[in-house]
UniProtKB/TrEMBL annotation:
<dbReference type="GO" id="GO:0005524">
    <property type="term" value="F:ATP binding"/>
</dbReference>
<keyword id="KW-0418">Kinase</keyword>
<dbReference type="InterPro" id="IPR050482">
    <property type="entry name" value="Sensor_HK_TwoCompSys"/>
</dbReference>
<keyword id="KW-0004">4Fe-4S</keyword>
<dbReference type="GO" id="GO:0046872">
    <property type="term" value="F:metal ion binding"/>
</dbReference>
<keyword id="KW-0808">Transferase</keyword>
<dbReference type="InterPro" id="IPR011712">
    <property type="entry name" value="Sig_transdc_His_kin_sub3_dim/P"/>
</dbReference>
<keyword id="KW-0472">Membrane</keyword>
<keyword id="KW-1133">Transmembrane helix</keyword>
<protein>
    <recommendedName>
        <fullName>Oxygen sensor histidine kinase NreB</fullName>
        <ecNumber>2.7.13.3</ecNumber>
    </recommendedName>
</protein>
<keyword id="KW-0902">Two-component regulatory system</keyword>
<dbReference type="InterPro" id="IPR003594">
    <property type="entry name" value="HATPase_dom"/>
</dbReference>
<feature type="domain" description="Histidine kinase">
    <location>
        <begin position="100"/>
        <end position="286"/>
    </location>
</feature>
<keyword id="KW-0408">Iron</keyword>
<dbReference type="GO" id="GO:0016020">
    <property type="term" value="C:membrane"/>
</dbReference>
<keyword id="KW-0812">Transmembrane</keyword>
<feature type="transmembrane region" description="Helical">
    <location>
        <begin position="21"/>
        <end position="42"/>
    </location>
</feature>
Length: 286
């Protein structure tokens, strides 16, 4: 009897307690979902703040990089101006030396030639040795005029375009290697600094001289183009290329690299043995 009453009472208690248990489960689930939602919301805010910090760091890094690039550009510009100024001083010194050679030494050689001619007219026995001396003086005079032209190139008097065209024609005529000029119209459309013109011309001279001496090329192409703030010169040949590593390249290439660096420019070499060489020089211009 007692057992039956206990079972009956237990069933009644379970009947009333089951709804309460379901409510507890629902409330517990709701609390758990609310906790998860709060955790996700906190996580989202954390990620948003972290992303904002990263964006700020990226913006600061970009700003620092832009400042560094601007500082590098300013430094290159200053180096270019300094190099151009030094080149201008060297060119002025070359002109002075050329003028002194032409005016002083040239006059002395001319006077000696005149004296020898007069002496030969009065001393027949000395005619032959005096003729040999006169021939040597004439050879010395020709050598002097060649040096004067090299020190003070007359081509630049007609501007960079005329100088480049004349140099290309002269190279083809003297070396027998066909050389063509591919210049964009904009390359000569605006005036350039005379000092920079001299650097570009000297670099072109040295590049062609290297090709004539070493490249064994059958064709040469000169390219000139102007971009924003720079003038690019490219000298390509189809010769034997450059087998040596950069550290062992000849004095000609080192001289070109030095001239370009002093002008604040860039110098690149692309070459493979048997496939020719391409020299690319970029010069800063106003």
């Amino acid at each position: 009897m007692l057992v039956r009453w206990t079972l009956t009472r237990g069933r009644q208690i379970m009947r009333y307690a089951q709804p309460l248990l379901e409510i507890d489960i629902i409330v517990g689930g709701a609390v758990m979902l609310a906790g998860i939602a709060l955790l996700l919301l906190w996580r989202q805010r954390y990620l948003r703040h972290a992303l904002a910090d990263l964006e700020q760091q990226l913006a600061q890094e970009l700003e620092r990089r832009q400042l560094a690039e601007q500082a590098l550009a300013d430094t290159r510009h200053q180096v270019g101006r300094l190099g151009a100024s030094q080149q201008s001083l060297r060119d002025a010194e070359r002109r002075r030396i050329a003028r002194d050679l032409h005016d002083d030494l040239g006059q002395h050689l001319l006077a000696l030639t005149f004296d020898i001619t007069q002496l030969a007219q009065h001393h027949d026995t000395l005619a032959k040795p005096l003729a040999q001396i006169e021939s040597r003086l004439q050879a010395a005079s020709r050598a002097m005029h060649t040096i004067v032209r090299d020190l003070q190139p007359e081509q630049l008097e007609s501007g960079l375009q005329g100088a480049v065209q004349q140099q290309v024609e002269q190279f083809s005529r003297l070396s027998g290697i066909p050389c063509r000029l591919e210049a964009e119209p904009a390359a000569f459309s605006a005036p350039t600094d005379e000092r920079m013109d001299a650097v570009v011309f000297r670099v072109l001279q040295e590049s062609l001289s290297n090709i004539a001496r070493h490249a064994q090329a059958s064709e040469v192409c000169i390219g000139l183009c102007r971009a924003a703030g720079s003038l690019s010169l490219t000298v390509r040949d189809n010769g034997v290329g450059l087998p040596d590593p950069p550290a062992r390249r000849g004095c000609g290439l080192r001289g070109i690299a030095q001239r370009v660096a002093e002008a604040g420019g860039r110098f690149d070499i692309a070459s493979q043995p048997g496939l020719g060489t391409a020299l690319t020089m970029s010069f800063p211009i106003q």
